[in-house]
Amino acid sequence: MTPLLPPIPGTIGETTEDTLLDGRVRLRQPLQGLRAGLDAVLLAAAIPARPGQVILEGGCGTGAVFLCLLARQPDLHILAIEREPALAALARHNAALNGVADRVTVLTGDIADRRLLRDQPRPHHACANPPYWPGGTAPPLRLRAEATHAGTGPLLEDWATALATPLAQKGTVTFVLPAGRFSEAATALRDARCAGIALLPLWSRTGQPARRILIQARRLSRQPDHLHPGLTLHDSGGWTEAATAILRDAAPLKLR
Questions:
Q1: Which long-range contacts (CB under 8 A, 24 or more apart) does 29-37 make?
Q2: Where do the domains of the chain lie, and which CATH numbers do they carry?
């Protein structure tokens, strides 16, 4: 993490400049609040994007996910939605910082507002790192609270519907979530007319319960569901070889 940097006009407070993917991605993000890291890199790695496709991200925050995705596959167009104007401005700044502003459209608004995408190209894939939990005690910082607790914001079923509805047929929706929400996520995706659900557990270490999952489904698909063996992140020497390939070398994480 770099020393504190002055606020960027139109954004929020003091920031730091950090890097992801072994320096491939530069990221200005708020000193206070939820900060991007492992979840963002893993989510980006799981999106099966091909050159020339359009990718929709809901709740993009500072842009970490779409920047990691563009580092792996530069020939994409990103449609990113963020309801917090200050974070949306920071995401636009980060797109310019990484030289990809011409491939990124950051829209300020709620993911449930279909008018946001009215004049935009139809996306091929969609992704999100939704708020972790629908209720409970939220952290005191407002932006961190809104990123981790849904509160009065969209529920997981709303996220699934908002991301799946504009997709081309057989386009994918991918979430990274706490493992305890896999059943809720599967139901939400099915209700949004997605099928062929692929579930990938993320194990901190061999023999430990998975704390996170990646879950992906296809719009209007007839594929069967698929349970992936999962990804173990750490071993006795640190990051596993498979995790290092994703986190440092921008390798894809295939769910099928």
A1: 29/62, 29/64, 29/90, 30/62, 30/90, 30/143, 31/4, 32/141, 32/143, 32/144, 33/141, 33/143, 33/144, 33/147, 34/61, 34/143, 34/144, 34/147, 34/148, 36/61, 36/62, 36/64, 36/65, 37/64
A2: 15-247 (3.40.50.150)
